[in-house]
Amino acid sequence: VPKTRFARFASELELLFKPVLDLIKGAGSPYYAQFPKAPSEVTIKELQFVSATIEWTPTPASFFNRDKFQLHVKEMDSDRTWRELDVDHRESFPVTLLDPGTRYRVRVRAYNHKGESPWTEEKIMITPQKRNPQFGGVGPGYTWTQTEDHINVQVNVPVHIKREHVNFVIKEEYIKVEVDGCDFTLEGRLCGHVDPDSSTWELAAPRQYGCDTDRRILILELDKIPYEEDDDNPMPIFMWNCIVEGHPKIEIKKYMGLKQPPESREMKKDLLRATGQL
């Protein structure tokens, strides 16, 4: 009798869960599959100079449909065709062979034997500009890079910051930058000399230089004036080791002069002599 009762209970249990079991067993079959729907929440992860990982969220039906996915990547403002990547059933995919400092459009769609879903809304992806780390560094709340003639300072600020929130004072040997509503101040004696008349700043719009939509970038553009280290070394110094005195320094001695061809150095020395600076 116990066996009979158990067998009856097992049979009733099987009948109760049969639709679910059949659905799982038949996932991806023509009988159960539905027309695919587009994924959602396409995000950019691990953004590097030449690579990035693209993630997306499939719809709940994609599991039972056994949907596969296609990923498209295309350089913005380019006549090139979409780069198509068939990523099978995966929900993320590493994209390589990108160019540094380049804007891309990214989209994803699902497909199965019944057809293809619409494309997701295009996501804008911007790879970082590759920079030589010896000629730039990190300070309190900012990053910076340089050439022989130019300094670029970048500060992440909240998206609500507008031009009227920024107080920018620049002199030949002094800088002061304050942002109302943001815990950032850059103030002090500059490491070198700049031209106040040609040094400027701007606020980059959201997503103009990266993928975050809740941040803006305050960009300071400073034009250098070459200066001499001392009387024993009359060769003008073009590379800075920091932005403001007292901030973290980088090593520049072994790089000084390497980026200047001999004719360029001589032309600059002649210019400095002609203007009475050398």
Overall description:
This protein has 278 residues and is α+β, with helices and mostly antiparallel strands. 15% of the residues lie in helices and 35% in strands. The protein has helices at residues 2-25, 61-65, 262-274, and strands spanning 40-45, 52-57, 68-75, 83-86, 92-95, 103-112, 115-116, 123-126, 136-139, 142-146, 150-158, 166-170, 174-179, 185-189, 193-194, 200-204, 215-225. The strands form four sheets. Strands 9, 10, 11, 15, 16 and 17 form a six-stranded antiparallel beta sheet that branches. Strands 3, 4, 6, 7 and 8 form a five-stranded antiparallel beta sheet that branches. A hairpin with a 2-residue loop joins strand 6 (103-112) and strand 7 (115-116). The longest helix has 24 residues, at 2-25. The protein is elongated.
What is the number of helices? 3
Tell me the span between the first and last alpha carbons.
Answer: 111 Å
Low-confidence stretches: 207-212, 257-265
Helix and strand sequence: HEEHEEEEEEEEEEEEEEEH
Oligomer: single chain
Largest sheet: 6 strands, antiparallel
Topology:
Blueprint: H1 2-25, E1 40-45, E2 52-57, H2 61-65, E3 68-75, E4 83-86, E5 92-95, E6 103-112, E7 115-116, E8 123-126, E9 136-139, E10 142-146, E11 150-158, E12 166-170, E13 174-179, E14 185-189, E15 193-194, E16 200-204, E17 215-225, H3 262-274
Antiparallel strand pairs: 1-2, 2-5, 3-4, 3-6, 6-7, 6-8, 9-10, 10-11, 11-17, 12-13, 13-14, 15-17, 16-17
